Amino acid sequence: MRVRIAFFTTRMLLGYGVDLTVHELALRLTRRGHQVDVWTPTFDDTYLNQPYGLHKITVHGDSANRALPILERNAQIALGRLRRELAEAGRGYDVLLPCTHPYYAAGTVLDTPQVFFNFGNVPTDGFTWKRKLNWAWLHHSEDLVFKNRSARIVSISRFLHEQQTAEQQARGTVIHLGGDHYWPAWDLDPASSTVDAHYDRAALRSGFRERCGIPENALLLGYCGRLHRQHPAYKGTTEVMRLGRRLAERDSRIMLAMCGIGSEEDGHWVREQGALPLLNTAPADMPGFYASLDFYVTAARWEGFNLPILEAAWHGVPTVAYEVGAHAEHASGILVPELNYDELCRAALTMARDKALREDFGRQAWQRARLFSWDKAAAELEQVLEEARA
Question: Is 295 helix (H, G, I), strand (E, B) or coil?
């Protein structure tokens, strides 16, 4: 049955995991025959010209919206305008998917069943007191109000699902994200047990390394994320670069490549820390980035999912990380059970020095990654949307 679906999200920009998730699910739900629109106040050309509709919703308030209660109220006013515009046009939706604050009131304002998409709320260590107050409001408004008004709740990991109340878990389900959006052979049946049977990883690897000036004999560690100098503490971006320097002192072949969105100033900071910045890499070049890696590394201390780990796995690349958040649900490699930085560095050095270990974990990563596809996630979400409408 054809269903009219509306996503609501803060932005649709290059380099953000939530934005990519909305795109992949909207795209696949459209392919499954549904009418899908995405409403957001901010977007660039990354997701233009898609089969689904991408529409602007204007939330007034400017600087006053830095206070999240005010932003929430102004978003509700914007949703009210949208309701009137849809009514005048004789349009409407069967089910809504608000994915970020401040749009979790969409179901109430538009008087339409909604599914709350739970990406989790990050730790506030290192935040200013004003930002901590905002995040406290965010957490409590979501948990005490908007989740309880939603027909169903979708969490992107068991880790996030199990942090909810028993009643919310009863109305909720886990839908793991896909990781095959950069997979260059997505249309092939992955019947083989090895990633190399499906695309020429060696050619991608050598081509990308040559373009970026990376020696072919380098042991390349990779990280993908926002490369802003003022990054959230839980992401561990500085710690990853410190790890790269520490390992390079032990083995001169070791290099660390940092891929993600950032400014030239951010790139200069990354270089100062001894890593190679790969700023604002186009999606078409991401297969080359992952194929060029010997393994992926992160020092994140909290993650609701951590999509780059799965992206790397889809290219046969294992991971070294802390065993935190949702990592154990999809990561293959060495997971350090406690937040012990020295142990994380030792694990990375072990991975760098043992080619057979890397290859074994790489095969495991590829095999496990095939359980996490966007087509599978869209099919599961389609079922939840049907249940929300019932």
Answer: strand
